[in-house]
Amino acid sequence: MSTQRHSALQDLLMVEGKKVKHYSGKRVTEIFGSHVFGEQSMRTYLSDEAYKSLSASIKAGQKIERKIADQVASGMKAWAERMGATHFTHWFQPLTGSTAEKHDSFFTIKSDGTAIEVFDGDALIQQEPDASSFPNGGIRATFEARGYTAWDPSSPAFIIETGYGKTLCIPTIFIAYNGESLDYKAPLLKSIDALDKAAVDVCHYFDKNVSKVAATLGWEQEYFVIDEKMANARPDVVMCGRTLVGHAPAKGQQLEDHYFGTIPERVFEFMQDFEQEAYKLGIPLRTRHNEVAPGQFECAPIYEEANIAVDHNSMLMDLMAKVAKRHQLQCLLHEKPFDGVNGSGKHNNWSLSTDTGVNLLSPGKTPRTNLMFLTFFVNTIKAVHDNADLMRAAIASAGNDHRLGANEAPPAIISVYIGKHLTEVLDAVESRVKEKFNEQDEVILKLDIHKQIPELLLDNTDRNRTSPFAFTGNKFEFRAVGSEANCASPMVVMNTIMADTLKQFKSDVDDLIKGGDKKEIAIMQVLRRYISESKKIRFEGDNYSEAWEQEAAKRGLSNMKTTPEALRAYETKGAKELFTNNSIYTERELGARVEIMLEDYVKKIQIEARMLGYIASNHILPATVNYQNTLIKSVKGMMEIGLDKKTFKAQIDTIETINKHIQVIKEKVEEMIEARKKANKLENTHKVADAYCNDVKPYFDTIRYHVDKLELIVDDKLWPLPKYREMLFLR
Ligand code: ADP
Ligand code: MG
């Protein structure tokens, strides 16, 4: 009997790793950004006027005049055609979680019938994709189903290659006819703006030369790679991006021999291939290595300004999926493709950088810069403390629940790790009484952070890997983000809560100054209060431990294990005020977003439930019954030749065990279908999501348990689905 599994296994023996012609013999610097309409191409293809105007618009967010837009469009077209592009597209990031493009040709026919190639300012600035089927959370009624994509000049245009075709991609935001945002990018840009303003104001206490503060982001992308034919032989992987059944292999990650080990050659070729494509697009990839689980890997770029970094991460996720196919591999970005081994995350390293070249979260070298560092450092902790539930909501998804809710890195409890040395610094500040602060105060003058930098680094290299939000020397690392997520969600929350906290900080400090305090004293006073008010969010111990769950509960920290629960944080009065006051979302936009996220959650669980039912009934049970028949035949035969029953007790026991599993699976699949029907009838999305979470999803574990038991019993030759060991260890 030949199943898809068996032919995949056969083929695997024959796969010849695809060799990649690396960089056509060029250095990375020679190809880096070659497919990007960046600084160099702008200078070559734009008039001085257009170049200056575009640069100013990128730097200061100034509006671009129509006349200039025409010039930019024509320069961009000339460049793109030179590169071999025939089409252009507005590229955007709708709330479906993938990127979207609709290609238009440069080519058109004039009224006199002659064919020409055009691309003008109008086409550059705005498009109206037929976008009525993108999720909008009820914002757009169908009669007004117009959505517009609008050029975002802050992110450079680029060219993607698909086979031999080349397309000019113009990064855009996606908004409804009335300006309401329908994508990830629009709110991100607003949050970057809000943070810029609030941070510049606070910087002016220390340095009047600062005129811009940018949020920076360096993401670390984890992913799994498996053979494509194996993936295709698993309906769950095809439809859900993860396995819904499968017994853990005899060897998992317990030997820890995969982590940082030699990268398997076939995967290595794949990595080099997507890296090469990424470099052309200006994505500054820097590191690659194996991750903890077998078949799991990671890559990370050099950090960039958050809006560019978000685009680059989205582009890279697309690229990885596409390039994997060339190598007959499948790249799994899902947070939990395999049970029993680690899932995948996407650490978001976040910091703030000024246009004077200062990283605000890097300890300074002088008392003044130290105080500036301390200010931004403490404000971050305060922001996370006051908005921990929103941080949890920002990373909520059906996939990520497998990591956060389960006993896997990191837990659903948001806490901040800062290391031993900075804890001492904060304790020292906190212990001061007001009278003790004076201009010459040793705490201000001798925060001593800079002198102890070696110690600080030491402290942080040996850092706490279990923390969801850790200070790592010159940035905070938000580790709880899911591997498949668009980084914009956590970044919008991070930027907004920081902007809001900094605004509050400024107003608190100004009040004290008005009351007669010297600036430094006022700052220290407010910092001291913030340190003490936000103390309970700081945790230096093992975040995976049972003890921490109990301790966190005592401290009153939330521990929301599921998405439907976590998303409620967006609907509180405080959240609505936060987002509207900082002009990130209107209440309607926020409501629509929650609706979309809940719908997404429901759809994912619904698809998984259907697939699990299907796999159990149409793959597992038939194969099992098949095997059972073989046993029955053998038992009958032995009875026929008159053997004593005792001699084939094992066969009979197995038949009975199999029967028990079959009964439970059948019963549970039916119950699960009923639970789904009930859930679907509920009237609002919150209730539907709750029902899917609490009444449907629990069946997954039960059904899986019995299927996985059968995998250990049924004849290997008859088992229809590629097994974990085959997917994770064979190359
Ligand atoms: P790891 O966390 O694996 O030890 P690193 O600390 O070297 O690795 O860096 C992880 C990521 O953090 C990289 O993408 C890096 O570019 C990014 N990063 C470093 N400095 C900053 C910063 N100031 N702002 C944002 N990201 C940063
Ligand atoms: Mg890291």
Question: Helix and strand layout, with pairings?
Answer:
Blueprint: H1 4-14, H2 28-31, H3 39-45, H4 48-60, H5 66-82, E1 87-91, E2 103-105, E3 107-109, E4 115-117, H6 121-125, E5 126-127, E6 147-151, E7 158-162, E8 165-176, H7 185-203, E9 213-227, H8 228-232, H9 235-240, H10 265-280, E10 285-290, E11 296-301, E12 304-305, H11 306-326, E13 329-332, E14 346-354, H12 367-386, H13 388-394, H14 398-404, E15 416-417, H15 420-430, H16 442-445, H17 453-461, E16 469-471, E17 476-478, H18 488-514, H19 519-533, H20 546-555, H21 563-567, H22 573-581, H23 587-640, H24 649-681, H25 685-696, H26 698-713, H27 724-729
The structure holds adenosine-5'-diphosphate and magnesium ion.
Radius of gyration: 29 Å
Strand content: 5-15%
> What's the CATH architecture name of the largest domain?
2-Layer Sandwich
| Net shape | globular
Count of discrete alpha- or pi-helical segments spanning 4 or more residues: 27
